[in-house]
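Researcher: Let's run the pair from yesterday's discussion. Sequence first, then tokens, for each.
Model: Starting with the first of the pair.
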Amino acid sequence: MKELLINFAFDLDNSIVFAKDAVKGIPYKCPECGQELVFKSSGNTGPGSRRPHFAHKGGGGSNCTPESLLHSAFKIKTAEILQEKINCDCKEFILNWKCEGCNKPYSGNILYMAKDVKIELDLGVCRPDIALLDANGKVIIAVEIVNTHYPEDGVLKYYRDNGIVLVQYNVTEDDLLNIEERLHNPDHVSLCLDSNCREFKPTLLNRTVIPRDIECIRCHRVYLGYTAVVFTVLGHNLLSNISNSDVEYLKNSGVELGGFFPQSVIIAGKSFLAMVPNCNCTPKLVMQFPRPVRRSRRF
């Protein structure tokens, strides 16, 4: 069997070392199979001479290919980087992407809800290269590393139906030079917030209702009201009109809504329906927040 000439390897600290930077006599290992690699360099240049490279010791690694080595190296290091940031309580790691449907630019925080990282977690119908889990152990983000094989349609449907955001990187060997920088710019993220876009997927949006102090702009009385918020696992928070299902959610949560009605309130200069009590002042009730609201950061 022809010897596989490998251009990069892991050292004992799991750092990526390229052949041009390797030193003879230092142990290295294969990113794919974990077997020992030997650094080879004749020191010769010119026609007929082999470039410096790694090779499996004793001719092993029969199932390793250049594609699988690249895939495994990028996957392992990506999982390490994300897990280290979670372990050190890092609150933010920003991704930047453009929607493939409407071409709108987006940014999002991949660590917004992530509490754990798993490599090739078995989800029954698929094993994402990297799965990010929330505090309840639910998979919220799937990271797929692509160099030859793209996720199949059935896998994409599973992610969509289960509210899992896909973050995809189409990688080359050059991406190993600075993996952390590369991670900030995925090639595809399955999340778009424009409901008119063909890439918009309602299953990737989460919804909740939160209490807020709301002031009548006529008499300046402050009331406790409830507004609906749509949020994503990447840290987007968007106000929304209160709906019948939101009202049912409040009732089922034990909130007493006697005397509350859905009415228009002004939030950050925009009108939204919220659940607020009637105000007895005249003329007709118009409510807004009592002071300029500091907007939650939008990514």
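Model: Moving on to the second of the pair.
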Amino acid sequence: MSGTCQTNSNISAQDQEKKSFNIILTKYICYIFIPFVYLYPKLTIMTIKNFTSPRGNDVPNQFEIRFGGTTFYQSYKSIIVKKENGRTYLDEDKWDYSRTTGKYRNIFLGETKKETQMKINSGEYILTDLSKSFDTTTKDISNFKFLK
């Protein structure tokens, strides 16, 4: 015999532990992780960031939220704009609530109030109630407790 093959009696307890761990890890990767990633390729990750002032500071109470394929503009506790599946939705009551909301809505949409109003009038933008409860089919997060 060449002596290259070790039996379990020749393996130290530490090596045996590593081998057991590697077997468990391999089973986890093969039987749990890979099928999970295959079945759920677009894991939903939420990011929330403040708008930034021209001086580079975070603007309080003005947020861009990304959740799956949906992007929101939130001012204080209100969802103002929702972009999803190529469509843009504006809150019917709060889309033009204040000068500050308008300023950051314009930045979020990359246009002026006049352009926004034209898109509302043409039907390109949809006015709706964005304060409704969470809907898992549309990923509308406006009533999550952390937004209140």
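Researcher: Give me one sentence on the second I can quote.
Model: The chain has two domains: 10-39, 46-147.
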